[in-house]
Amino acid sequence: MDKSNITLTKKERDCIIILKRISTNEFPVKLSELSKALNVKPPTALELVSRLEKKGLVKRSKGMILLTNEGRVMYRNIVYVHRVFENFLVECGLDLEEACEKISNFDYILDEKIANLIRNRLGMPSKCPHGREIIENGKA
Ligand SMILES: [Zn+2]
């Protein structure tokens, strides 16, 4: 996916990650749940959701908040970059927790192309240091 035409803020990034993570069961997410998980007040969560809606990444239906297909692609991109860079920084000697935290500040800015280069250089790791799978978009 070409991310150059959609830019996110850190808060929007966190919102996408949380939306995906707390909606794993059959049930989509309510605004109250989202604001609790993001640790912000409901009006702030609503503002984030409206911004993501304008970017085509989120949709609202009957009081529920869902990721669109584009939103899910964005999520997978962020996670892919995140896990590749986790390998990189841990290999450079950073401890995993710190690596994870630091990478959360830029995993939504970089695109898959950069992550692919780093991953190649690292010998194509298939898992992040947490043991989670590294999956390229479109190959899930
Ligand atoms: Zn992590």
Structure in a nutshell:
The protein is mainly α and 140 residues long. Helix content is 54%, strand content 7%.
What would CATH call the homologous superfamily of the largest domain? Winged helix-like DNA-binding domain superfamily/Winged helix DNA-binding domain
CATH architecture of the largest domain: Orthogonal Bundle
CATH topology of the largest domain: Arc Repressor Mutant, subunit A
Q: How far is the first residue's CA from the last residue's CA?
A: 14 Å
Count of extended strands: 3
Classified by CATH, the class of the largest domain is: Mainly Alpha
Specify the biggest β-sheet: 3 strands, antiparallel
Indicate the low-confidence ranges by residue numbers. none
Number of domains: 2
Structural class category: mainly alpha
Small-molecule binders: zinc ion
> What's the alpha carbon Rg, rounded to whole Å?
15 Å
Task: Please list the strands of the largest sheet in the order they lie side by side.
Answer: 1-3-2
How many H/I helical runs? 6
Give the overall shape.
Answer: elongated
Overall residue-averaged pLDDT value = 91
Task: List the secondary-structure elements in sequence, H or E.
Answer: HEHHEEHHH
Q: How large is the share of residues in beta strands?
A: 5-15%
Helix content: 40-55%
Multimeric organization: single chain
Helix and strand layout, with pairings?
Blueprint: H1 10-22, E1 29-30, H2 31-38, H3 42-54, E2 58-61, E3 64-67, H4 69-91, H5 96-103, H6 112-121
Antiparallel strand pairs: 1-3, 2-3
Helix pairs in contact: 1-4, 2-3, 4-5, 4-6
The site of zinc ion has 3 residues, from helix 4.
